[in-house]
Specification:
This protein has 457 residues and is of the alpha/beta class. The chain has two domains: 231 residues, Rossmann fold, CATH 3.40.50; 186 residues, Rossmann fold (3-Layer(aba) Sandwich). The protein has 19 helices and 14 strands.
Amino acid sequence: MTPLACIWHWAATAAAPVLPVYLRRRARRGKEVPDRLRERFGAGAARPDGPLLWLHAASVGETVSILPLLDALGHAAPGLSFLVTTGTVTSATLLGRRLPAGLAGRVAHRFVPLDVPRWVRRFLDGWRPDAAIFVESELWPNLIAATARRDIPLVLVNGRMSEVSRRWWGRAPGLARRVLDPFVLVLAQTEADAARYRALGGAAQCWGNLKYAAPPLPVDAAELARLRGLVAGRPVWLAASTHPGEEAIVFAAHRRLAPAHPGLLTIVVPRHPERGTEVAAIGAPLRVARRAAGQDPMAATDVLVADTLGELGLFYRLASLAFVGGSLVPHGGQNPLEPARLGCPVLLGPHAWNFAEIVERLTTVGGLTRIAAGADPAATLAEAVSDMLTSPDRGRAQAEAAAGIAAEEAGLPERIAAALLPLLSLRDEAAAASDGRDGVGPEMSGPLGTGIVDDRN
């Protein structure tokens, strides 16, 4: 054990007595489920019979990215069960709503234990997974080390490593090697991510980005038809996944746009729905309706705050264009592929480094509009929205170009699934249960978290 790994091990052990207080405080703020806090201590195992694959996804973005992989694995190996762990309440809720058809009875969800050695051991002793998949950038030293000691094969999929994270880990090369060495396969999102992992000693490859293979966001067709009836004839635009500081800009943009676009309806979907009351208050004196309060966008409504979970697909389909948030403030942006898959033209601010490779590809084919940084972001945003509202042909052309990019990597989940099945000794079962899919992967050659966990969802 390296000195830093030893320090982390004992620091986490020493912190264990106060962590229950920390978790209860999070539960009071809605950040934990009170009745499920024991899962954070590694309890609550209910291992099914047969082979079990464990997948760990930190939050919403990572959870969405593995849905097509779960689907591919489920089809390829009908006898395989899944344990999915996450760290946030919203990701747990989303998983329950978005699981591929037919998998609900084969997938168990638990909140990942905090990285305390005793709690990690309890978790692994209870579940005994046959293999483990970590998603994107979840590198927890005690959890990884304990998994490796049990000879459980470890894989990192859709790995990402920002330059900031690489520099951070580079200051602790011994710890970096200890964390990365157990992974028998590291699949990075981009070649740049793969190069950063290799610089730290990981044998990383780039097969593609699972975010390209995610299914379109779901929608309640009846509710979409009802809302379309309510807003018929009105110009509608969407500010999606907004972060603090962006809503005030969006409301200011609405006030600039309204005189030139009579009947304009602006829809704001905050990234964190619990901010709905706060966001609605920012909009005063505009006439604001809140979806979580059961309020519809009536004829006199200026802004609808859609502060509900799991309905973004509904509003991308309802709007004529969408600004994707997290990009007018230095957060790094949210995923522009989600509206692109649904034919909704995309506007994006200057701060989009979380999805730099995706943004570059969309920009190259004319698949999005960038909003430049400036002294008056509300004016710049309003101008871009107005241009799109008054030039529907331009919006359609942009949406078609973006949809082509969004459709790439369609076979990636099957390719990754084919590479993972040998870890579970399911080659024969997979061959016998083949349903005609032809994705074949290459043979394989055999407050408690570390690093800078990138906040890209």
